[in-house]
Specification:
heterodimer, A: alpha+beta, Glutaredoxin, Glutathione S-transferase Yfyf (Class Pi), Chain A, domain 2, 2 domains, four-stranded mixed sheet, 11 helices, about 55% helix, B: alpha+beta, 10 helices, 4 strands, about 5% strand, glutathione transferase activity (chain A)
């Protein structure tokens, strides 16, 4: 193989961000070397602000200096910019329907999970109870979609798995805040999470659940949420 | 040679999201049958069966396949059928298009349209935010006729609400946020979008759209008031 002049790849990220973790997993799965840069979200640096002036948020992928923002756009970009690096994260080009289904479920995860989990830690009383109900409904919907498959994409780890798996570190936090068992309501999802964690890309990227809970407690105190 | 399976789209008149799906089909040159939901009646079994997760239009039926979510449909149409590409081919350009579609969806649409519908003091805040965000999107035209270049593409489809719907909402509410003098590129884009030959079959009849919004004006205002109270 000819010398591969890989342009520099940099990921601007934040340690506990499930969105950043999606990108780390995608890059690792594709075997793309990159530089990880931890951003101070309370004191955002120039590079982040210049690279994502619209949202000023992580993650941002810089590929030969050009920024790509929004985690699912980044994951698709990584899949498309390194097409020969196995495995493909989205189903192949010759299966547009499978690709559409993958995009639909990734979009569903994006629309639902973060909002529910944020309401779960930020709110109290009836509003928190509603957040818990909504979250369980989302997990049950995903459980039904997973059905008997090893991964959401079928036999192979793919786009929807990447989109969801970082949130699995938050399951113990959901349980503590909501007083319910994820395993009881969604055993297949829990089994799927264990299977995904056997992959090095996932094991390396996900935050320890205890640290997630500590972080949420920090957020709660910061936002004045009674614990 | 077998004929391609039929394409049907569950929609309702006036839905900007259903329009996106139609726009994708029209731009790609795919014939389709429109199945219109009647909003005055309860949602049809067909809709509930094919979109149990969101229970919303549009829903694309292609043979025995079902695709939901307007932008997912747009990408599916681009990939499943031959015809002019809707998304760029270069991975970076595709990522940029997806980023701006997400921006329209999750950042711009709500404040921009709230700035038309909200009454009283709260309107000013939405207008300021809406205008700032609109300017960011407008810059993406980069002197081109369409976001897609010479002809409309994925991002034009995503932005379509800012065309025919904006014009009608301005008339119904009496509020204009994107003024011609301040946003000439966007206003020209809207005119070019609405008059594009390939899109002709799916651009909603303006009088009919106006009647629809006029009839539902109080419903929209009430919905907006409820949103503000949350």
């Amino acid at each position: 193989m000819a010398a591969d002049l890989r342009p520099e790849v940099v990921l601007l990220d934040f340690w506990v961000s499930p969105f950043g973790q999606r990108c780390r997993i995608a890059l690792a799965e594709k075997g793309v070397p990159y530089e990880y840069r931890e951003e101070d979200l309370l004191n955002k640096g120039d590079l982040l602000l210049r690279s994502n002036p619209v949202h000023k948020k992580i993650p941002v992928l810089l590929h030969a200096g050009r920024p790509v923002c929004e985690s699912l756009a980044i994951v698709q970009y990584v899949d498309e910019a390194w097409p020969d690096a196995a495995p493909p994260l989205l189903p192949r080009d010759d299966d547009p329907y499978a690709r559409a289904q993958a995009r639909f479920w990734a979009d569903y995860i994006d629309k639902k999970i973060y909002d529910c989990q944020t309401r779960l830690w930020k709110l109290k009383g009836d509003a928190q109870e509603q957040a818990k109900k909504d979250l369980i409904e989302v997990l049950e919907t995903l459980e039904a979609e997973l059905a008997g498959k090893p991964y959401f994409g079928g036999d192979n780890f793919g786009f929807v798995d990447v989109a969801l798996v970082p949130f699995t570190s938050w399951f113990p936090t959901y349980e503590k805040l909501g007083g319910f068992s994820v395993e009881k309501c969604c055993p297949k999802i829990v089994a799927w999470a264990k299977l995904c964690r056997e992959r090095e890309s996932v094991a390396m990227a996900l935050t320890d659940p205890d640290k997630v809970y500590e972080f949420v407690q920090f957020l709660q105190s910061k936002f004045g949420v009674k614990q | 040679m077998s004929s391609s399976p039929a394409v049907k789209l569950i929609a309702f008149f006036g839905s900007p999201y259903a329009h996106r799906a139609e726009a994708a089909l029209c731009l790609k040159g795919v014939p389709y049958e429109l199945l219109l939901e009647d909003l005055l009646r309860t949602k049809s079994d067909l809709l509930l069966q094919h979109n149990p997760v969101h229970k919303k239009v549009p829903v694309l039926l292609h043979g025995d396949r079902t695709v939901c979510e307007s932008l997912v449909i747009a990408e599916y149409v681009d990939e499943a059928f031959d015809g002019p590409p809707l998304l760029p081919t270069d991975p970076y350009d595709r990522a940029v298009a997806r980023f701006w579609a997400d921006f329209i969806e999750n950042k711009l649409t709500k404040p921009f349209f709230m700035a038309h519908w909200v009454e009283g003091e709260a309107r000013e805040g939405f207008e300021k935010e809406g205008l700032e965000l609109l300017a960011l999107l407008e810059a993406q035209l980069k002197g081109n006729k369409f976001f897609g270049g010479d002809r409309p593409g994925y991002l034009d489809i995503a932005a379509s609400m800012l065309g025919p719907w904006r014009s009608v909402v301005e008339e119904v509410t009496g509020v204009t946020v994107a003024k011609e003098e301040e946003h000439p590129s966007l206003c020209q884009w809207a005119r070019d979008y609405s008059s594009n030959e390939a899109l002709r079959p799916c651009i909603p009849d303006r009088d009919r759209l106006l009647a629809y919004f006029t009839k539902n004006k109080e419903m929209y205002r009430a919905g907006v008031r409820a949103m503000l109270q949350q």
